Each structure stands twice: as structure tokens, then as C-alpha cells.
Amino acid sequence: MQARLEKKEDVTIVHLSGRIDYESADRFRETCLKILNNQKIVFDLAKLSFVGSSGITPFLETMTDLSVQNKGQLKFCRVGVEFKKVFEASSLKSCEIYEDVNTATISFAKPAEAFVEKAEDVLATSFIPSEYQIKE
């Protein structure tokens, strides 16, 4: 698994790619908890995949710990179907998931209600469905 960091104003975007595996999980955890402390973070999972369950548990534990450490300032975007299923079955089921990096980044400054026509649906399901149009 590789991570590329990008800074947009006061938000750190972590573009993850490759495979989640058990071997990289400890290094990933240590690095995240050390350098992403007390930051607003968006994890872009568009190019991330996992094979089996061996690496997903440490990944979820890292995301949960980061969410607690950063007081909930953690969001996800471009999350695949298999990751959504895993998130829904974990402690991350209430995390915010967005369609793209820009929407996730802007959401730190504006609540979800500012982005969609049916905010109550979004808040109930924790993600912005693609059929909603972003308001200008």
C-alpha cells in the first residue's frame, strides 16, 4: 500500500493506492498516528484494494483510532462497494463518505446540508449519493 499526501488549505488529503495487506498495516498505522495527529483528513480510497481479510482489520483499527485522535475530523471519498460494506459492519459505520475529494474537503467548512437537496437522506445513510447535485 502506498500513500501520497496532498495539502489543500488546512485539510490533508491522503491518496491511498495498492493493496491493503497485513505486512504494511503496522507501518501504515504508526505513520498515520504520528504525522496525521490533530488534522482534518480526507482519505481517498479510489485506488485502494484488499485481498482477503488479513489487512482490513488493522486498517479499520487505524481509521477508528485516527477518528478518535482527531476528534472526528476524518472523512472518506471515492470508496468502493466492498469498502462501504466493511465500513457499515464496523465502528466506522457513521463516517462521512463523499463522491469526490473536493466535496469531502469542502465539507469541513460547510455541513452536508449545504451540498445536497435532501440532506436528511444523506445524514441518515452517511454518504452523498451520486444522484444529488452539488449546490453552487
Short description:
With 136 residues, the chain is an alpha/beta fold. The chain has helices at 22-35, 56-69, 81-88, 101-106, 119-125, and strands at residues 2-8, 11-20, 40-50, 74-77, 96-98. The termini are far apart.
Molecular structure report:
This protein has 5 helices and 5 strands, in the order ββαβαβαβαα. The protein is an alpha/beta fold. The chain has a single domain (2-125), classed as STAS domain (Transcription Regulator spoIIAA, 2-Layer Sandwich). A 5-stranded mixed β-sheet has the order 1-2-3-4-5. Helix 1 packs parallel to helix 2. The longest helix is centred in the N-terminal third of the chain and has 14 residues, at 22-35. It is globular, with a radius of gyration of 14 Å. Residues 121-136 have low confidence and may be disordered.
Topology, pairings included?
Layout: E1 2-8, E2 11-20, H1 22-35, E3 40-50, H2 56-69, E4 74-77, H3 81-88, E5 96-98, H4 101-106, H5 119-125
Parallel strand pairs: 2-3, 3-4, 4-5
Antiparallel strand pairs: 1-2
Helix pairs in contact: 1-2
Keywords:
136 residues; alpha/beta; Transcription Regulator spoIIAA; 5-stranded mixed sheet; 5 helices; globular
Q: How far is it from the N-terminal to the C-terminal residue, by CA?
A: 36 Å
In CATH terms, what is the architecture?
2-Layer Sandwich
C-alpha Rg (nearest Å):
14 Å
Instruction: Tell me about the largest β-sheet.
Output: 5 strands, mixed
* Domains (count): 1
Summed over residues and divided by their number, the pLDDT gives a mean of: 80
Extended strand count: 5
Question: What string gives the helices and strands in order?
Answer: EEHEHEHEHH
The CATH class is Alpha Beta
Q: CATH-wise, what's the superfamily?
A: STAS domain
Which class do the helix and strand fractions yield? alpha/beta
Number of helices: 5
**Strand portion, in percent?**
25-35%
